[in-house]
Amino acid sequence: MMIMHFKRNAWMGLVLMIGLIVGTLYKVNQGQSYFLVDWLQQLPNGDKLGHTIIFGVLTFVLNLTLLGKSVKLGVSMNLALLLVGLFAVIEEFSQLFIVSRNFDLLDLACDGLGMWIFYRLSKRVLADGDPY
Protein backbone atom coordinates (compact mmCIF):
# COMPACT_ATOMS: atom_id res chain seq x y z
CA MET A 1 0.00 0.00 0.00
CA MET A 2 2.81 2.43 0.84
CA ILE A 3 4.49 1.77 -2.52
CA MET A 4 1.22 2.57 -4.35
CA HIS A 5 0.91 5.88 -2.45
CA PHE A 6 4.57 6.64 -3.18
CA LYS A 7 4.14 5.97 -6.91
CA ARG A 8 0.94 8.04 -7.14
CA ASN A 9 2.68 11.05 -5.57
CA ALA A 10 5.71 10.56 -7.81
CA TRP A 11 3.48 10.41 -10.91
CA MET A 12 1.75 13.65 -9.90
CA GLY A 13 5.15 15.29 -9.43
CA LEU A 14 6.30 13.98 -12.80
CA VAL A 15 3.23 15.36 -14.59
CA LEU A 16 3.73 18.78 -12.95
CA MET A 17 7.44 18.81 -13.83
CA ILE A 18 6.78 17.87 -17.46
CA GLY A 19 4.11 20.58 -17.65
CA LEU A 20 6.58 23.16 -16.33
CA ILE A 21 9.24 22.09 -18.81
CA VAL A 22 6.87 22.00 -21.80
CA GLY A 23 5.46 25.42 -20.90
CA THR A 24 8.93 26.89 -20.46
CA LEU A 25 10.23 25.40 -23.72
CA TYR A 26 7.20 26.64 -25.63
CA LYS A 27 7.65 30.20 -24.37
CA VAL A 28 11.42 30.42 -24.94
CA ASN A 29 11.24 28.68 -28.33
CA GLN A 30 8.74 31.37 -29.38
CA GLY A 31 11.15 34.05 -28.16
CA GLN A 32 8.64 35.10 -25.50
CA SER A 33 9.37 36.27 -21.98
CA TYR A 34 8.75 33.77 -19.17
CA PHE A 35 8.95 34.69 -15.48
CA LEU A 36 11.11 31.74 -14.44
CA VAL A 37 13.64 32.30 -17.23
CA ASP A 38 13.64 36.06 -16.62
CA TRP A 39 14.32 35.53 -12.91
CA LEU A 40 17.14 33.03 -13.54
CA GLN A 41 18.80 35.34 -16.06
CA GLN A 42 19.18 37.96 -13.32
CA LEU A 43 21.43 35.59 -11.35
CA PRO A 44 25.11 35.06 -12.18
CA ASN A 45 25.19 31.93 -14.38
CA GLY A 46 21.43 31.67 -13.87
CA ASP A 47 20.95 29.89 -17.20
CA LYS A 48 23.39 27.17 -16.15
CA LEU A 49 21.78 26.94 -12.70
CA GLY A 50 18.39 26.56 -14.37
CA HIS A 51 19.63 23.73 -16.58
CA THR A 52 21.15 21.96 -13.58
CA ILE A 53 18.03 22.24 -11.45
CA ILE A 54 15.38 21.55 -14.10
CA PHE A 55 17.04 18.45 -15.54
CA GLY A 56 18.06 17.33 -12.07
CA VAL A 57 14.56 17.56 -10.64
CA LEU A 58 13.14 15.83 -13.73
CA THR A 59 15.60 12.96 -13.21
CA PHE A 60 14.79 12.82 -9.48
CA VAL A 61 11.02 12.66 -9.98
CA LEU A 62 11.21 10.23 -12.92
CA ASN A 63 13.54 7.89 -11.03
CA LEU A 64 11.16 7.88 -8.04
CA THR A 65 8.22 7.27 -10.38
CA LEU A 66 10.01 4.33 -12.01
CA LEU A 67 11.24 3.08 -8.60
CA GLY A 68 14.85 3.11 -9.82
CA LYS A 69 14.21 0.76 -12.75
CA SER A 70 17.17 -0.10 -14.97
CA VAL A 71 17.34 -1.48 -18.50
CA LYS A 72 19.98 -3.69 -20.05
CA LEU A 73 21.64 -2.20 -23.13
CA GLY A 74 24.84 -4.19 -23.13
CA VAL A 75 25.30 -2.76 -19.64
CA SER A 76 22.68 -1.98 -17.03
CA MET A 77 21.51 1.66 -17.25
CA ASN A 78 19.12 3.55 -15.03
CA LEU A 79 16.00 4.22 -17.11
CA ALA A 80 15.42 7.74 -15.71
CA LEU A 81 18.99 8.79 -16.52
CA LEU A 82 18.68 7.31 -20.01
CA LEU A 83 15.35 8.98 -20.81
CA VAL A 84 16.20 12.39 -19.36
CA GLY A 85 19.65 12.24 -20.96
CA LEU A 86 18.14 11.57 -24.39
CA PHE A 87 15.65 14.40 -23.86
CA ALA A 88 18.47 16.78 -22.84
CA VAL A 89 20.54 15.95 -25.93
CA ILE A 90 17.57 16.26 -28.30
CA GLU A 91 16.40 19.51 -26.67
CA GLU A 92 19.84 21.13 -26.79
CA PHE A 93 20.62 20.07 -30.37
CA SER A 94 17.15 21.21 -31.52
CA GLN A 95 18.27 24.74 -30.64
CA LEU A 96 20.50 24.66 -33.72
CA PHE A 97 17.28 24.95 -35.76
CA ILE A 98 15.42 27.56 -33.66
CA VAL A 99 16.29 31.17 -34.46
CA SER A 100 15.48 32.48 -30.97
CA ARG A 101 17.67 29.88 -29.22
CA ASN A 102 21.42 29.23 -28.89
CA PHE A 103 23.08 25.81 -28.81
CA ASP A 104 25.53 25.55 -25.89
CA LEU A 105 27.52 22.46 -24.90
CA LEU A 106 27.97 23.93 -21.42
CA ASP A 107 24.17 23.85 -21.03
CA LEU A 108 24.30 20.15 -21.88
CA ALA A 109 27.08 19.63 -19.32
CA CYS A 110 24.96 21.40 -16.68
CA ASP A 111 22.02 19.16 -17.62
CA GLY A 112 24.24 16.14 -17.00
CA LEU A 113 25.54 17.50 -13.70
CA GLY A 114 22.01 18.08 -12.43
CA MET A 115 20.91 14.66 -13.62
CA TRP A 116 23.77 12.95 -11.80
CA ILE A 117 23.36 14.86 -8.51
CA PHE A 118 19.60 14.38 -8.36
CA TYR A 119 19.86 10.74 -9.50
CA ARG A 120 22.13 10.09 -6.50
CA LEU A 121 19.62 11.83 -4.23
CA SER A 122 16.74 9.77 -5.63
CA LYS A 123 18.70 6.57 -5.00
CA ARG A 124 19.02 7.57 -1.33
CA VAL A 125 15.29 8.27 -1.10
CA LEU A 126 14.48 4.91 -2.69
CA ALA A 127 16.93 3.12 -0.38
CA ASP A 128 15.27 4.70 2.67
CA GLY A 129 11.84 3.48 1.56
CA ASP A 130 8.57 5.35 1.11
CA PRO A 131 9.11 8.99 2.18
CA TYR A 132 5.36 9.64 2.26
Automatic annotation (TrEMBL):
<keyword id="KW-0812">Transmembrane</keyword>
<feature type="transmembrane region" description="Helical">
    <location>
        <begin position="79"/>
        <end position="98"/>
    </location>
</feature>
<keyword id="KW-1133">Transmembrane helix</keyword>
<dbReference type="Pfam" id="PF04892">
    <property type="entry name" value="VanZ"/>
</dbReference>
<keyword id="KW-0472">Membrane</keyword>
<feature type="domain" description="VanZ-like">
    <location>
        <begin position="41"/>
        <end position="121"/>
    </location>
</feature>
<feature type="transmembrane region" description="Helical">
    <location>
        <begin position="49"/>
        <end position="67"/>
    </location>
</feature>
<protein>
    <recommendedName>
        <fullName>VanZ-like domain-containing protein</fullName>
    </recommendedName>
</protein>
<dbReference type="InterPro" id="IPR006976">
    <property type="entry name" value="VanZ-like"/>
</dbReference>
